[in-house]
Design a protein that fits this description.
The chain is of the alpha+beta class. The chain has helices at 9-19, 29-42, 113-127, 149-152, 227-242, 273-290, 314-326, 370-386, 407-420, 435-441, 466-481; strands at 45-48, 54-58, 70-75, 97-100, 103-106, 136-141, 163-166, 174-179, 181-190, 193-194, 202-209, 245-251, 262-268, 299-304, 311-312, 330-334, 342-354, 358-367, 390-393, 425-429, 446-449, 454-455, 463-465. The chain folds into two domains: 3-180 and 399-481, Aminopeptidase (3-Layer(aba) Sandwich); 183-393, Alpha-Beta Plaits (2-Layer Sandwich). The strands form six sheets. The chain has a six-stranded mixed beta sheet. The longest helix is centred in the middle third of the chain and has 18 residues, at 273-290. The radius of gyration is 24 Å and the shape is elongated.
């Protein structure tokens, strides 16, 4: 079955179109042009702000003119992750989406349903004249995944609506009213290139593969493996036992994704090769056993490789291995108020050798408590500072404090219950949403967030549940009919 043949047809037709348009974070020019052309073809008013955010306006349907204006919001960009053995250019290639039973998936890459399915729902609302609704403003923001730039740079006066429905959540049947805030912390090591010692005549490559990866907010509490930590754990021990010399290390990609794959190239003396390989085989069994439940496909392998051109100096290697080992990763605290909610976490996201003499370590910290967020930032900073790295943290983004007295929440609960004969779960989320930033510019916004069921987000395992999309659409349409009068 083709995606555009799925129900709701309008939503999946537009989702199939969106999949054809490259839209990496900070490179949203093509999807921006598409949205502006769409508005022109539909005869709808549209405007673009300096950040690149797009607002498309649709007038109320007959007899709904007196309802409050609703802002429907999603982000344009997508996380660009692919399997190591897949040849794909996110700047030019269309996502190869397909139907697999109850799910929509992509071939070897992220699907981009985060937040492409929210965009598709907005476009379907804008073109469907059979849906009753008051005035609508559809807001499409840029660069949510790597910096929340669009939300941060949204200017007062761009919106007029007082109710905002964020369509960027990933669990159908749940309505979100709060989220964590976050900060990115970057560590920079500088190394010296050194000739390979004359008696180091064997080059080896270690690979960590088969991890699920996932969203560093939604999935951080699922006991998933981090490829950077798993790889460095072996290297840290092997450094002292075999005096190996590192040439390169590459692991993970994005600050908001848990590292799925990592690779290191190093040299050793030929007399140590056999014993080191035995140690690696033993380590592979150990680590697979530790993650036997959450990461059944995990595998650590080793192979011969061409001799590299250089190794890094031993001082930097020592600092790097120790810092990666000591750097915290995962859940640090659970909420004392909301059962099952992660309060504070940190993600050791990526390790990259760049330019000729630099190693960049990217991490991200999240917490629903501002003081705890800063505390974990300081924890990560101190680790890398002790290892003689240059450390910087960004400005971060605020959390979204839950408002259990929200008018739109009460309406949404009533509509969901009457539509499906079951009450929705009302929750806060550990992942970051743009809502906290919107409140900084529009303090009187009344907001909720919801969406269809997505799994494996921020990884090539990303998939969209079809039945939940149907329910998401029905709920959205019914909710728009019940927006209160001005």
């Amino acid at each position: 079955m083709n995606i555009q043949d799925l129900e709701p047809k309008g939503v999946f037709t537009y989702f199939a179109e969106i999949c054809k348009i490259p839209r990496p974070s900070k490179k949203e020019e093509k999807i921006i042009a598409y949205l502006l052309d769409f508005a022109k073809e539909q005869g709808l008013e549209a405007k673009k702000d300096d950040a690149g955010n797009i607002l498309i306006i649709k007038l109320a349907t007959p007899e709904m003119e007196n309802r409050k204006t609703v802002v429907l919001q999603s982000h344009m960009d997508m996380v660009c992750e692919k399997n190591d053995d897949v040849s794909f250019n996110f700047d030019t290639d269309p996502i190869q989406a397909y139907v697999d039973g109850e799910w929509v998936k992509a071939k070897g890459t992220t699907l981009g349903a985060d937040c492409g399915i929210g965009m598709a729902a907005q476009l379907a609302i804008l073109t469907d004249n059979n849906i009753k609704h008051g005035p609508i403003e559809c807001l499409f923001t840029v660069d949510e995944e790597t910096g929340l730039t669009g939300a941060a740079e949204l200017q007062p006066g761009f919106l007029t609506g007082k109710i905002l429905l964020n369509l960027d959540s990933e669990d159908e049947g749940e309505i979100f009213i709060g989220c964590a805030g976050g900060i990115d912390t970057i560590a920079l090591f500088k190394h010296k290139r050194e000739p390979i010692p004359s008696d180091y005549n064997v080059a080896l490559k270690i690979k960590v593969r088969g991890l699920k990866g996932g969203h560093s907010g939604d999935d951080i509490n699922k006991g998933l493996g981090n490829a950077n930590k798993i790889l460095n754990r072996f290297l840290w021990r092997a450094r002292s036992k075999y005096d190996l010399r590192l040439s390169s290390l590459d692991g993970g990609n994005l600050r908001n994704a848990i590292a799925r794959e990592a690779t290191a190239i190093f040299t050793i003396h030929k007399d140590d090769k056999t014993e080191l390989i035995k140690d690696l085989e033993s380590y592979n069994n150990i680590i697979k056993n530790e993650f036997r439940v959450t990461e059944p496909s995990l595998n650590v392998s080793i192979e011969d490789c061409p001799m590299p051109d250089y190794v890094i100096d031993e001082t930097c290697q020592f600092d790097l291995f120790n810092a990666l080992y000591a750097c915290p990763h995962g859940v640090l605290a659970m909420s004392q108020e909301i059962e099952g909610l992660v309060e504070t976490s940190t993600n050791l996201a990526s390790v990259k050798f760049v330019h000729n003499d630099q190693i960049i370590i990217s991490t991200s910290q999240r917490s629903s408590v501002n003081t705890a967020k800063q505390d974990v930032v300081n924890m990560v900073r101190s680790v890398f500072s002790l290892a003689n790295a240059n450390v910087k943290s960004g400005d971060g983004y605020p959390g979204w404090t839950p408002n259990k007295n929200s008018e739109i929440l009460k309406i949404a609960e009533k509509v969901y219950t009457s539509t499906f004969n079951t009450a929705p779960a009302v929750k806060a989320i550990h992942a970051g949403l743009e809502c906290g930033l919107f409140l900084e510019k529009y303090s009187d916004l009344d907001m909720i967030s919801f969406g269809p069921t997505l799994r494996g987000v921020h990884s090539p395992d990303e998939r969209l549940n079809i039945e939940s999309t149907q329910k998401f659409w029905l709920f959205l349409c019914n909710l728009l009919e019940e927006i209160p009068v001005k």
